[in-house]
Every structure is written in structure tokens, then in C-alpha cells.
Amino acid sequence: MNKQQPTLFSFAKVYCSVFGHKLRVSKNITNHVHEYRCKKCGMEMTDTADGLLARLTPKFKETNAYLAKIHERRKRIFLAKAS
Ligand SMILES: [Zn+2]
């Protein structure tokens, strides 16, 4: 008998499909855009420009990295003007 054991990963997936993902913010991109990671299965989501949640694809990662860079630069200019 070679019965396949369910892995922890698939268990997490079942858990998530029943109870929903346990999303935690993994990265702040801007004040309004954040990246999230599910505590249970590791799935990654992100806020989009439309204010929706989407799967964090490589394309979104790229966009977010770019957004973060602009945001960081703006913040620095703002701080420089404020002081
Ligand atoms: Zn999950």
C-alpha cells in the first residue's frame, strides 16, 4: 500500500478554502498599497491601484517595487521641505 499522505501544504490549502486566508501585511509599499502573505499557506496578495486585492504576481511585484521607490523619494522630499 502506497497511500499518499496529505502534506502540510495541502492541509493549509484546505484550511484556507474552508476558513479563508489569514492575510498579514508583509510589506508596506505606500500608505495605501500593501503586500500581504497568508499565515497558513503562504499565498501572497497585494492591493492594486483600483483598491482591489489581487494575487501577487511577478508583474505586481515589479510594479510595487517601482511604487515603493517613488514613494520613498516623495517622502524624502516632503521631509526635506518640512524641516
Ligand atoms: Zn491561505
Write a structural description.
The chain is α+β, with helices and mostly antiparallel strands and 83 residues long. It has one domain (21-82). Helix content is 45%, strand content 22%. It has 2 helices and 4 strands. The chain has helices at 8-19, 58-82; strands at residues 23-28, 34-38, 44-47, 53-55. A 4-stranded antiparallel β-sheet has the order 1-2-3-4, with no helix packed on it. Strand 2 (34-38) and strand 3 form a beta hairpin. The termini are far apart. The mean pLDDT is 89. Zinc ion is lined by residues 16, 21, 38, 40-41, 43.
Nutshell version of this structure?
With 83 residues, the chain is an alpha+beta fold. The chain is 45% helix and 22% strand.
List the main descriptive attributes of the protein structure presented here.
single chain; four-stranded antiparallel β-sheet; alpha+beta; 83 residues; 2 helices
Topology:
Layout: H1 8-19, E1 23-28, E2 34-38, E3 44-47, E4 53-55, H2 58-82
Antiparallel strand pairs: 1-2, 2-3, 3-4
The protein binds zinc ion.
